[in-house]
Input
Amino acid sequence: MIDYHNLTPEQEEEMIQSEFKALLRDYAATAHKQKIEIITKAFEFANKAHGGVKRRSGEPYIMHPLAVARIVVNEIGLGSTSICAALLHDVVEDTDYTVEDIANEFNPKIASIVAGLTKISGGIFGEGASAQAENFRKLILTIPEDVRVILIKMADRLHNMRTLGSMPPAKQLKITGETQYIYAPLAQRLGFFLIKTELENLSFKYEQPSIYSKLERQIMQVTPMLEDAFRIFIQPITKILDSYGYDYEIVKRIKSPYSVFKKMQTKHITFEEVYDLLAVRIILKPKPNENEKANCWVTYSAITSIYTPHPDRTRDWINTPKSNGYEALHVTVMGPGGNWIEVQIRSQRMNDIAEKGLAAHWKYKTGEQEESDLDKWFKSIKEMLDTSDFTNAVEFMDTFKLNLYSTEIFVFTPKGDIRKMPAKSTALDFAFHLHSDIGSHCIGAKVDHRLVPISYELQSGDQVEILTSKSQKPQMEWLDFCTTGKAKAQLRTILKKELKAIIKRGQDAVEEAINSVGQPVNNQTLQVVLDHFKITNSANLYSAIGNGKIDTSVIPSLFLNKTKNKWMRIWKLQFGSNDNKKEETTSQPTQHNPKKTLHITDADVGSGYKIADCCQPIPGDNVLGFIETGGDVIVHKRDCPVAQKLQASYGNRILSANWETQKVLSFLTTIEISGVDQTGLLKQIVQVISDDYAINIKNINIDTTNGVFLGTLDIYVYSADDINNLCKNLLKIKALKSVKRIK
Output
């Protein structure tokens, strides 16, 4: 690893020039019209502007714009205008040059892109930006103007993630939070699968380093076996494709650590139970007179004649591409080793679009008058911006997040026109998708000629007819029936006046309940109420109470006989960076500083440190701290959805944290067991839990069907390590086939 701090000026200049030459080589290898002169001019301009400035790692600052420009060329596929903008993207923000200077030196288009990038700066390493949501709002506002702004921003974020190791832990958590929450889903929505995968993996690496390292080792251990399986699997496929005279390439794809982790989390399975670690991709290179779709289907037919396909795992994204432009045939077949293997069949064009997303989509676009799915998506975002009145940037970000759906369904109009909708869309979502007036007057729908309510969840293949009435008016409860950002945004605009009255009614009720026990209404007392009802912001709380969905009678009891948080008497948490410096804390919780290391001892603990009700972290879980406005620190699991949103929205108020545990207090958790029923099995299970581990059991619930049982046990343990050890020992009972923690 280079020690940038000890480089001489001559060595720095040599390194900079070497990187610039590498950029020119990358550019020369593309099919773009070569405009070396303007790129060289942009580099020299940026190099002079950033002269003498260093990054936190000690490397010259110009190395960052050069790296972003190389990503723009190699991984996104953009041309000279975008390369120049990437080289210049921090000049206006960090130096005395203005957008007008850029326009005079280069051209209005480059200046316009740099201006767009300057507007959304500060959301990554900016010290002054505490609420990152406003930066995301600015980011999304650039989509209708020039999408290259967002593509260069994606490259900027990717390089910052690749160099994140030089940042302190609290800053790492802030950056990974906003990357996971917005940038990775946005990369997927724009079709940049490789960038999306790398962003997720890097975020996972810094958020949960121990789990990442373990999974990385496990994947490396099984990789030789997967490579052998790949070679055996493709032999008959290669033989038959060769007989057809096809020009093709077959490559393997092994799941990333993050992808494996998500599968384990959602399916509640172990690493050994993740069966689809290996996927096979066949990239066809059809001749000019050949039909690429026909070749894909012929290849599909050849594969399924060799291997048995899974009846429910065939996906046709050739005839009905995804909204991000993705086209492919997916089929999962039973491999020779008894494992399911997913095969992805694409043409070279389809593969380019899958890997380079939007840029490749433009490259292959032929009919300029034809509006693509991405064009339609951009238009829908602009409509959402134009027609919606958001009270704050966080609300905007939440609504936009709903548009970053990863799965889709296909439904039909009464005339047979196909429409793409997000998965879990309702009939009301579809009504607003057609037109805001149709949505506003919707009274129900007919799905396949069957009458359904507006809350009906649509399925792929449904033929939907929306029923309307002139006398129908939107209702507040409709917000619960909508799942798409567009429908929710339009409804909020229509119901704005009524919503304000409901929120005011809810706010008055909350304040009255808090005041009734002599407590002041402030950020601290409000957070107690929010935590109890597991709601993330006060507006949603007031709305739920104003609508009568939440009973305020329990609120006073939250403040009666309030004692110190019992968990914090037993646990010590180290907040801040991972260096060895420790500073004494004061008695005022408002003194927390994300840049400092705060070592919290029993004497310091009180109402200033609380465990989040939403995820209820325990010793051994990876955690972080969030500083509330009043100064209290709320401790969340790092993979808690609420924590990810807080990281993305309020990055500068995030603290890194580590447990120091003492086995004094136990906590309640739930494990799930399954296996083959036999006489005396329950006695064996109880013996391991109670006798071997001296763990108390609160509740046992087991159901048996045809000799197979599934059950849950609520038990009291001291830490996550206790749970892991217990699960391993329970699995030694032969009749048990699966044991896992589910809470």
Q: What stands out?
A: The domain at 667-741 is CATH 3.30.70.260 (Alpha-Beta Plaits). Confidence is low (pLDDT under 50) at residues 122-132, 562-571, 577-607. The chain has five domains: 4-166, 210-364, 375-494, 498-559, 667-741.
